Amino acid sequence: MILKKKFSASRCFWLSCLTLIGIFALSAGKAGAAPVEEWTLSLNESQLFPGAVARVDLVPARAVSSAVLLWKGVPIPLVSLSWQGSLTAFFGIPRNELPGSQTIELAVTALDGKVLNHSFPLVVLAKDYPVQQLTLPESKVSLDQASLDRHHREQEALKAALADLRRAPLWQEQFVMPVSGKVLSPFGVQRVLNGKPRNSHSGLDLRAPLGQPVVASAAGEVVLTADHFFSGKSVYINHGMGIVTMYFHLAEISVSPGEKVATGQMIGKAGSTGRSTGPHLHWGVRVHDCMVDPLTLLAVAGTAPGEGVSGVSIRD
Q: Closest Cα to residue 89, out of 116, 114, 59?
């Protein structure tokens, strides 16, 4: 095994990349052998902390038949990003993940049908999230039984709508912000409501005056629109590859379930519906059942595989 360090700068951000080069050595003169081609696997390792999005790329895609990685017991297929020539997968690092080393398993099916198993480390970096004190009407903090029953019904409907979203990508462009306002409350802060600890913040709260247009962060398909107890008028968009964006507290919704939307298309208007202290937009991102910081998706979803990365190369 040969280790070789290489360093370069990204056009969008710095990444630390663990690169695994697989060479399928075939016996000389073996009849019907598949062509030998080198492939590289890269991971944005230096940006991985609790709440971040991980991206794995295998390039070139034509070098193998298929690939599947295993993350926390869940198999995630690498999907072809044809415009980038890669097989790619995204997955989330849970908000409550402890820092330290993890192992990712990768099963690669070669062109000749042989399955090759690899493993490589993923180091989760430490990240401290702040605590946020909020005061709300007590009726929206301590729920009565009717409100709890409503919330449970809403969660069951949401679960059904998001049950099977692992499919080909529906976007090709860089993801964009749904509104231009500044961040009022970042992802991951520990919420304390009326002095009572609650779940950490699962998205970004963005400044948006009442009635401001809210746009789709990327091309996709609307899978659910609803008026929920906590999130108010909401839109959920499937972008493929397990990525779903969500837009809460809207005053108006201008799209319907099943509708295809384009990047930057208006999907509603900002408001203060649901459990909200004033007009704003809550923007959330879910990657394979894991809520993540939307800003980390912006950082990795539109970049080219292996572009401007730094790290090590491993040759077998």
A: 59
Same domain, 163 and 86: no
State how far the Cα of 218 lies from the Cα of 239, in Å rounded to an integer: 7
Residues 122 and 137 in one domain: no
Residue 307 has pLDDT above 70, yes or no: no
Closest CA to 266 of 274, 257, 254: 254
Residue 31 pLDDT grade (very low, low, confident, very high; cuts 50, 70, 90)? very low
* Closest of 302, 299, 152 to residue 229, by C-alpha: 152
167, two tokens: 């499919």
Tell me the β-bridge partners of 17.
44, 311
Identity of the residue numbered 137: P
CATH number at residue 230: 2.70.70.10
Which residues, including other chains, have CB under 8 Å from residue 287's CB and lie 6 or more apart?
53, 90, 91, 92, 242, 243, 244, 297
Q: Which amino acid is at 72?
A: K
Nearest to 312 by CA among 2, 46, 4: 4
- Are 265 and 177 within one domain? yes
User: CA-to-CA distance for 253 and 148, rounded, in angstroms?
Assistant: 25
Query: Both 111 and 7 in a single domain?
Result: yes
For residue 177, the model assigns a pLDDT of: 96
308: amino acid identity, one letter = G
Q: Which of 5-14, 30-39, 49-58, 305-314 has the highest mean pLDDT?
A: 49-58
- What residues are paired with 315 via a beta bridge? 2, 21
Which of 41, 67, 60 has the alpha carbon at shortest distance from 120? 41
Domain of residue 120, CATH code: 2.60.40.1590
Same domain, 101 and 186: no
Provide CB contacts within 8 A for 142, sequence distance 6+: none
